[in-house]
Amino acid sequence: MNPLKNLRVKATGIGSMPHKDTSYICGFILDNFPDLPFWPQLSKIDPHENMLIQYSEHIPCVVADLEKKGAYFDASGDNQQQLLEFYEKFTEGDFEYFSMSPEYAAGFYQMLKQIDSKKTGILKGQVVGPLTFLASVQDKEGNLLLYNEELSDAVTKALAMKAVWQAKQIMRANKTPVIFFDEPYLASFGSAFCNLSKEKVISVINDVVEVVKTHVDISVGVHCCGNTDWPMILETKMDIINFDFYGFGKYFILYPEAIKKFIDKGGMIAWGVVPTTEFDSTCTQEVLLDRFRIALKELEKKGLNKQNILDHSLFTPSCGMGTLDKSLADEIVKITAEFAQMKI
Asked: Which domains does the chain have, with CATH numbers?
């Protein structure tokens, strides 16, 4: 049974937050998302928590660049030894090899401490998605890791194992893990900036799901903060689809058959109902609720059952908030939590 369906408050966050006090932000998250808290990624504390650097440890040929707050890969030398060690660890299921050190994920370690005394039974974690990582990391000549077939397979498997390691740490804390893969790169699909085929995208996404589920029986989600080919994503093996409803909901609901098929197989939709970078004083609960109700009515007209949709729904901000002002991020968290408790 999906552990998310019967949550009292069906809301959570994306990952990145602008805070510098790990104890405060973890407590704030637990207070506002008591049923489904997430651990915060805090890049303003340390560049090690940059989305690419945070998951770069022990990935073959990938080098963190703290000064530029990113990562690059170096396949110019003999990389066979690195790949050999990686595949040995992968085949052995050596999850500790794929761990995140404390300086790379202060929010994760702090949340594990603070959640211990809480009644909440679930903790959401997140990992940068393989497509986004592969499309963001390049060598010194500007060649993208995405098009290096030898290394891209290893990276995909490594990121999946980092999700497994996270899940196992959460399970050791006697909580149920839910892990999302953050894939902003999916917004580029179909544009001149992305020449990947639909089949390739589905294959990569399914690969990480399959690796994760081989080792841990958990729900796995994908987050995309832009518009993409939604039937393609709904066709994957992901259990949860999280997207920027506020900005792109009108495109998502154009595919009622794909949405229904996804829900009917037990999938959950995490609607990003509260905007982040676009947030202003006009984003009241009434306005946000009206937007969501209109979308629900459109889906009802196309044959979907409203209550069935709501039973398979979560609510989140539209995207991560690491670049926002701290007080604004706090306000968005509160509004998201309140939204999930409103009568829809």
From this structure: 22-339 (3.20.20)
